[in-house]
């Protein structure tokens, strides 16, 4: 039987790219819900020279202060852009102003970064979004990481498995804590299920600061 799913996805993507929209940051006229050229240029790529090859943070001096002494449990971070300037404005629109539709554009930017980092990924790659706190979901009406993962799944054709990671308890709000306090506060917050045999797990989150959440989740899956 002929599988037309790829054709349908291409057709929907092509149609979406032609729809007139406004740039979410400056409201200039664009197409497909994208950023205008000027605002896109304002994003700082989270890659290149002077970055830690593991956690992606900028290196101020030789060696990464986060990964040098105590290596993280995850293999590496791939980020679409830095959380500064236009990047911070974009994430705030998405999370604070609840611009749900931006998940598609953010997934496009992240997919581009993923393919630039490594064009060929294992066929067993799966996506697992970080679950949000219940209070945050009730306030926003959606889980930002889960929606980006869902859109990223259609871009990269990797299955998304949200049920593999869930919250066992609410836990403290991470934005109010430092690195050490974040790691302590995460004890018992998340619980993971057994992933498919041989799966390569890509954990999807909306913002990475200290990397404590990603480190903790990676520990759970490795265990």
Structure in words:
By secondary structure, this protein is α+β, with helices and mostly antiparallel strands. The protein has a two-stranded antiparallel ribbon with strand order 1-2. A two-stranded parallel ribbon has the order 3-6. It has a two-stranded antiparallel ribbon with strand order 4-5. Residues 1-7 have low confidence and may be disordered. It is globular. It has helices at residues 5-18, 37-41, 86-95, 102-117, 134-140, 144-156, 179-185, 212-222, and strands spanning 20-22, 29-31, 125-129, 165-167, 190-192, 200-204.
Rounded radius of gyration (Å): 18 Å
Number of strands: 6
**Major sheet: order of its strands?**
1-2
Estimate percent helicity.
Answer: 25-40%
The number of helical segments is: 8
Order of helices and strands: HEEHHHEHHEHEEH
Please, what is the average pLDDT?
Answer: 85
Strand content: 5-15%
Distance between the termini: 41 Å
Strand count, sense and barrel status of the largest sheet are: 2 strands, antiparallel
The helix-and-strand class reads: alpha+beta
User: Stretches where pLDDT falls below 50 for ≥5 residues?
Assistant: 1-7
What best-fitting shape do the alpha-carbon axes yield? globular
Which terms summarize this structure?
two-stranded parallel sheet; 223 residues; globular; alpha+beta; two-stranded antiparallel sheet; 8 helices; single chain
Question: What is the fold's blueprint, element by element?
Answer:
Elements: H1 5-18, E1 20-22, E2 29-31, H2 37-41, H3 86-95, H4 102-117, E3 125-129, H5 134-140, H6 144-156, E4 165-167, H7 179-185, E5 190-192, E6 200-204, H8 212-222
Parallel strand pairs: 3-6
Antiparallel strand pairs: 1-2, 4-5
Helix pairs in contact: 4-6
